[in-house]
């Protein structure tokens, strides 16, 4: 594999893929990407493309924001547990706040700029049931 783990993560995002390294020592996915496994310290890794299917584990709604985020509220920030195990902490921009709940199924996909987008999915079919809304130009 060429490039650092973060370069490979970003290269995956640029082509619409969630890629994480899988440890050659213990077999766990290494999230967030880093050069050594945090459980067994092995540097042996192979990249794996993840499904993007996950569930909302926890979230909070930001109703008063400051600095660069002022004017973009309300928005949600939360953890999504991917079906492969790792959790992502992200701004859940593409989800309608009225639809957001713990345990709802989502599909995580990178947009062309490498930002993660989240859409609700029907858990029985993994088919998105919502489309991403227009992105706030300030986010
Ligand atoms: Zn390991």
Q: What report would you give on this structure?
A:
- The longest helix is centred in the first third of the chain and has 10 residues, at 5-14.
- A six-stranded antiparallel β-sheet has the order 5-4-3-6-7-8, with no helix packed on it. Strands 1-2 form a two-stranded antiparallel sheet.
- The model is unreliable at 133-139 (pLDDT under 50).
- The chain is mainly β and 139 residues long.
- The protein has two domains: 5-49, no CATH class; 53-128, OB fold (Dihydrolipoamide Acetyltransferase, E2P) (Beta Barrel).
- Helix content is 7%, strand content 35%.
- The protein contains one helix and eight strands; from the N terminus they run αββββββββ.
- A hairpin with a 5-residue loop joins strand 6 (105-110) and strand 7.
- The protein is globular and about 45 Å long.
- It has one helix at 5-14, and strands spanning 19-23, 45-49, 53-62, 75-82, 87-91, 105-110, 116-122, 127-128.
- The site of zinc ion has 8 residues, from loops.
């Amino acid at each position: 594999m060429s490039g650092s783990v973060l370069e490979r993560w970003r290269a995956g995002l640029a082509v619409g893929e969630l890629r994480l390294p899988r440890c050659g020592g213990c077999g766990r996915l290494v999230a967030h990407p880093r050069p050594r496994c945090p459980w067994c310290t092995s540097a042996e890794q192979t990249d794996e493309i993840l499904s993007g299917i996950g569930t909302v584990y926890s979230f909070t709604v930001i109703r008063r924001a400051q600095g660069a985020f002022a004017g973009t509220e309300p928005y949600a920030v939360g953890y999504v547990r991917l079906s492969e195990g790792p959790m992502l902490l992200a701004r859940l921009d593409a989800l309608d706040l009225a639809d957001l709940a713990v345990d709802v199924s989502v599909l995580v996909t990178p947009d062309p700029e490498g930002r993660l987008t989240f859409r609700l999915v029907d858990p029985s079919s993994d088919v998105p049931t919502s489309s991403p809304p227009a992105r706030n130009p300030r986010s």
